[in-house]
């Protein structure tokens, strides 16, 4: 009969560190979240921000989320979490809250897209705003996937 030691009794999977972050769900979503969020910020900035109240919030959410997600990714790559269960809670809360903020930003960006249809620079601004709306909703979806997939590990 095999004895059950402390390591065998633990059923919780270890948090990834190093390159394993890119191969483990939900942590593999962090890099696409950063890239899509960066595209949101770039595309909105390229429109010359025709609707500052709407698109200012979009740029704030996208830039802040990119920076915090980058710090989170770097902390996973370095192994700063030291396999603490609190990091799963922190990760889930951050991605859940960011998904809500990104949903508000995506809706405001969609509104700015609709309003830019009647702008004097119709083709370039409308196309950039449409692309920014697409990436904002895609980024929202990635944050939602990340937040909920932590529970199904």
Automatic annotation (TrEMBL):
One of its GO terms (biological process) is myelination. Pfam families: MARVEL. Its main location: membrane. Keywords: Membrane, Transmembrane, Transmembrane helix. It comes from the Eukaryota. Coiled coil: none annotated. InterPro entries: MAL, Marvel, MARVEL-CKLF_proteins. This is MALL protein. It comes from Atrichornis clamosus.
